[in-house]
Amino acid sequence: MKFLLVLLCLAMPMAKRKIMADKSASTVTYSAKHPLHKWDGVSHDVNCAMIYNDETKLPESVAVSIKVASFDSDNNNRDSHAMEVLDGIKYPNVTFVSSDIKPGSDGQLVAKGTLTFHGVARLVTVPVTRKEAGNTMTLTGEFPVSLTDYKIERPSLMGMKTEDDLLLKINAVFKL
């Protein structure tokens, strides 16, 4: 009888489990605009964990942390200035912790949670696209982030300031 219970437990999938994103395949990108040019900064150092429900086949919560210093815009001067503007020593990480993830329209998910950036925590809603291939799930989403909402002085070049909104994009890849 004990053997049969062990076999049943092994055959049943775990209801919920924590899965870490594949750091070699995951990125977070910010896109910024200045009147003279626009650019992207990419971080390949994404720490992301998800609580995944094997029964519903849906993520139940997600937490993401990125080091400000890990963003690379292909311009060392711009990246150094970003560290200054963002107080990267005082506030070394940007984090998002979901409080609610629900299925949305067209197979999308809607993740609500707290984005903490430059020491300021604000509630945000992120539309997320979920794609599955084999044993891999990719979650992608993007949303605007206002620099002034996070008490960040907009950088300027030649007397002209960057736009207030950045576009933050996440691409998190999980092995299921």
What does this structure look like?
The chain is mainly β and 176 residues long. The chain is 11% helix and 56% strand. It has two helices and twelve strands, in the order H-E-E-E-E-E-H-E-E-E-E-E-E-E. The chain has helices at residues 2-11, 76-85; strands spanning 16-20, 27-34, 37-43, 46-53, 58-67, 93-103, 109-117, 120-133, 136-146, 156-157, 160-161, 165-175. A ten-stranded antiparallel sheet has the order 1-4-5-6-7-8-9-12-2-3, with no helix packed on it. Strands 10-11 form a two-stranded antiparallel sheet. The longest helix has 10 residues, at 2-11.
Helix content: 10-25%
> Main sheet, how many strands, which sense, barrel?
10 strands, antiparallel
Strand count: 12
Series of secondary-structure elements, N-terminal to C-terminal? HEEEEEHEEEEEEE
Strand content: over 45%
Give the rounded overall mean pLDDT. Answer: 92
Gross morphology is elongated
SSE topology:
Blueprint (H helix, E strand, L loop, with lengths): L1 H10 L4 E5 L6 E8 L2 E7 L2 E8 L4 E10 L8 H10 L7 E11 L5 E9 L2 E14 L2 E11 L9 E2 L2 E2 L3 E11 L1
Antiparallel strand pairs: 1-4, 2-3, 2-12, 4-5, 5-6, 6-7, 7-8, 8-9, 9-12, 10-11
